[in-house]
Specification:
283 residues, homotetramer, alpha/beta, hydrolase (chains A, B, C, D), Formyltetrahydrofolate deformylase (chains A, B, C, D), 4-stranded antiparallel sheet, Rossmann fold
Chain lengths: 283, 283, 283, 283
């Protein structure tokens, strides 16, 4: 079965589900899963439709033309993506490799519906890991004097390699607007702390000093405000007085793997809509 | 806002979502939430639609007539329920009161969208609790010699009081077919063990002897096979060697409250479809 | 079996475990459970010993005298408490009753090893609940003009009723130093947010706006800095975009019950030591 | 700091903690952590003591001689292990590699306090992974006709390589008594199901058919009864009607990694005592 995802958002109005589903029915698309959400405060409507497109009675472009015509008539935002046109992912790493291994292994097991276009690092250290998994490795050194140039080089590389979205697998660097604005809501970061509690550096040490009984990790889209983009996934695990800050770092690895790979999966399968700084995630 | 829920199930076919949504649109019903599920093995289709019915342009009966006509034409099972016609719940208890308090409190806080019709017990013990919450209390003694009569008396009482569904809040008795068959997939039981691991009596003692590191609770619809009806909700909590069987009983109370009240909420809001012994639960 | 708990803290030194255990052995006390903790940063030592005191070969006062002599000789802080001398708990409430019911029910089930001395409220509303459980109810009105007087009246009441520690079961008021300083590290508060993320008012609304994917609750000792005393327990539950702020309030109740009752249990059974603003909790 | 672990078990008697701690104090060992457990039913006593042995005033053998003498005098089982004498782990694999990667990575991060002696497989497939991590890889083919010989070859290999314990990282083969009896309570298996619910083959398919709302994984010591040895760790994750059996397999990988690596950590750090088919695990 070949599937596709249609996402719609617009001010709420009656009949929109029927009208959109009729377009799909007319093209002989079979709806497999559909979810709607209505944001109460703003009366905003969001819709996710996953459909079987293997027996379409027309070209995909015809379906898109019909959606476009309807959207202009009644007013809604829409996007459609076909599963057989996989998104291309770039993974950015520094020296920590746990999130990298996790993404590469989950990709190998068929859990991530993407092509891994490349690994980009500001260090040469993880080249052997990239080779072990047969993924191209690019090394662009980056320091406080060449951030702009390094990020522009990254943008150039990503565009050349047709990268659709980016996972910062513990990249440990603050991106410049050059890179962030080239991929708005398409760069996923993992923060090793339970946002918005502990922002910035050494969140586990902050957590230890405060004596918290839970620590967490957060994946989010990167935007210009440090560690404050739209949150995608969060996990916590219990800790006790007996956990040193180093123990928390250890406990954090599995959480970081989990929230980053969940975010990559959700983005890859087109299940996320960003609205007013929050994510709406269909499942 | 006044809302309603429409549930559909049928063999999967193209266009059904559009056709059903068109009926709603024609009646000026606004879809708030909708979920579909396709059971891969059987190619069976399930659909849940929650809609705003406060601005219907016709009688509710007209909407139902149109659904009936369409269902006869293209073949699907359907039911519609209106939130302002609350379901009436009977709570069955024995002597343990934790699940009873939990349901009465959650009802008081507005979390359970039901009218609590009555409490039925085989013991007089919990009458004061019923009175504290202003709920009618009925005492029907039950022992091994009068099970049939007691269950028939329960059925009579439930029908007189227009009971729609039943929560066995640790009733601790095995129901006869007389009662079970009068309310198929409408009697919710809570089992103080992680089914299907530990069936029958004293599951926590079985868990202790086995040395498990997790214990659980399960809510399910009661059917004629003891503790084997369709599962609705399950929870586990970690235990260690230091937990005695009595400690597990304590740890179990919160779990039992949780799985039973979750099941009552899901049933009350018409989010459950039973298919081949499994539950499909929309959320 | 009659049990007691001995807690020791001091700068770490060799042999202290043996010396302390020898005192217990000399009195014919049998150790049931013991835990030590060494705070790496400060080289501080903490010890918890639970022992069977039903076959002591001497008066309890003799045991205490020997501990005192040894502590003066080698330098350590110590306290001993006997389980049959139950702590007396005061519960402070406002109008929300879920934490109150939870504590009263868990006490009834034998899970809280305390005597509930009284319920104190700034409103008359929950008197019937207190009566249902046969607990004395005291109403001390409190507003912005009489905080000092009200808190002094509370202190007077607690001392008259020999209250050992206090649970603020959603009391919803900021205590004055008059009350806080009378019971240092003996007043337990529950904060309906995951500290230190969302301090102050309406944390669930803050969480909604931020778009978090987890919400939490925290129990902690009250001190003069609002919501910043030593943390005792924390819990989180997942939420999605579909949770309104009101839904989060609902989801929060079970968490608040859990973290508050866990804190009361830990304090009642003398398993907590506070050190430099953090809690060391033996289990 | 150099540390060691002393484990004691015996029928409960007064004074044993003091006597044992005195031996440690006499040797100038400093207790860092200690935990006791008393099994109520059998009046059996268990003790775990972690101590700093870097400033012992005598040879380690002297300490052991004193423990032996005392044990013969008052009767207890004991064992002592020194952290700088790392245990040697053999990892057994078949074709699935997720648990293998997880162990190799956690070892690399310093989370597993072992030396990885070798990887043994009945297939050649994972040789490249072993080489990537610089661990010796041994291939011993195994089929229904040569089980005995293959397991004897494994025992010979393990003894030659001074293997202390074994992790079956999804080895997918039933061991013969030849191998099991050579390493009693030293072979850790991971079962991809929540024992004792679903034993034997395809537990996720069993779980799907039953319609469970949680799936789990279990690590346990292997013994002659299939999947019934002493349980070490268990984890569950929620599933819904929308999870296919294949989805459950995916969800299971992280759980399997978690329970197996937790078991290896606990065994490696000498925190487990097996008693009557149950594990007592100090933390």
């Amino acid at each position: 079965m070949s599937t596709a995802v249609l996402k719609i958002s617009c001010p709420d109005r009656k009949g929109i589900v029927a009208e959109v589903c009729q377009i799909l029915a007319d093209c002989s698309a079979n709806i497999i899963d559909a979810q709607q959400h209505r944001e109460e405060l703003d009366e905003q409507f969001f819709m996710y439709v996953k459909f079987d497109c293997s027996e379409l009675n027309c070209d995909r472009s015809i379906l898109e033309t019909r959606l476009k015509a309807k959207s202009e008539l009644i007013g809604f935002n829409w996007s459609v993506s076909f599963k057989d046109e996989k998104k291309r992912l770039a993974i950015m790493v520094s020296k920590y490799d746990h999130c990298l291994y996790d993404l590469l292994l989950k990709h190998k097991y068929g859990e991530l519906d993407v092509d891994i276009a490349l690994i980009l690092s500001n260090h040469p250290d993880l080249k052997a890991t990239a080779e072990h998994f047969n993924v191209p490795y690019h090394h662009i050194p980056r320091n406080k004097d060449n951030r702009e140039e390094a990020d522009q080089a990254a943008v150039d590389l990503f565009q050349k390699e047709k990268v659709d979205f980016v996972a910062m697998a513990r990249y440990m660097q603050i991106l410049t607007p050059t890179l962030i604005n080239a991929y708005p809501n398409k760069i996923i970061n993992v923060h090793h702390g339970f946002l918005p509690a502990f922002k910035g550096a050494k969140p586990y040490h902050q957590a230890y000093t405060k004596g918290v009984k839970l620590i967490g990790s957060t994946s989010h889209y990167a935007n210009e405000e440090l560690d404050m983009g739209p949150i995608i996934d969060q996990v916590t695990v219990p800790v006790t007085h007996a956990h040193s800050a180093e123990d928390m770092v250890r406990a954090g690895r599995d959480m970081e793997n989990s929230v980053l790979s969940n975010a990559v999966k959700a983005h890859a399968s087109d299940r996320i809509i960003v609205y007013k700084g929050r994510t709406i995630i269909f499942d």
